[in-house]
Amino acid sequence: MLSHETIWAAIDALAERHKLTPSGLARRAGLDPTSFNKSKRHGPDGRLRWPSTESIAKVLEATGATIDEFMSYLPPGSQPPIPAGVFPPQTGSIPLLGFAQAGAGGFFDDGGFPAGQGWDVVDFPASPSRKTGVYALEVQGDSMVPLYRDGDVLIVEPGAQVRRGDRVVVKTRDGEVMAKIILRQTARTIELTSLNPEHPNRTFDMTDVEWVARIIWASQ
């Protein structure tokens, strides 16, 4: 059965799979680095502290792991049985484009949705692929390490509401396409934090931004 110990063991195993410490895994997911420390797994009064579903969701998104993969890290005998009539998630096809191509004209409409010719297709789990208008961008180069590496695929949702701390893909009217984290956004400007510490943060007037699309999934 699922327990406090088995859930934390799965998080530790996921961190080890990606060559991270628990604090490194939390940091990659955009959480407080101490969130997964062993000292935080019990309260001062000895009560059990469980990781939130939001924290687990952010960890899965940051590592590209699926819920099935996460469940596979649970110790033998602790995984819940699959109820009758429940089947593994189906896959769906969504448009795929490289970051270098994304900067060229003709691939997007004014709202940042896929348009024109030249798109490839990639299969993805139904949970992200059934969202209307989502598409995939393949990372090229090392400008997004350590979070995303060359060859990783990012699923983005154009038109989705974005807020501070969200990972997004931004295209400027000059044709520059980048993956960043929103630091601050007003009606006039948007401030972006770089994923790679070796690259500078950026600030744009909103009039210079063609579109902003939220990253909702990453395959690594």
TrEMBL record:
Pfam families in the record: Peptidase_S24
Chain ranges of the Peptidase S24/S26A/S26B/S26C domain: 95-216
The UniProt record lists the keyword Electron transport: no
InterPro entries, per database record: LexA-like (IPR039418), LexA/Signal_pep-like_sf (IPR036286), Peptidase_S24_S26A/B/C (IPR015927)
Keywords tagged on the record: DNA-binding, Transcription, Transcription regulation
Stretches the record annotates as Disordered: 25-48
Keyword Kinase carried by entry: no
Alphabetical list of PANTHER family matching this protein: FELS-1 PROPHAGE TRANSCRIPTIONAL REGULATOR (PTHR40661:SF3), PTHR40661
Name used for this protein in its record: Helix-turn-helix transcriptional regulator
Protein species of origin: Pseudorhizobium endolithicum
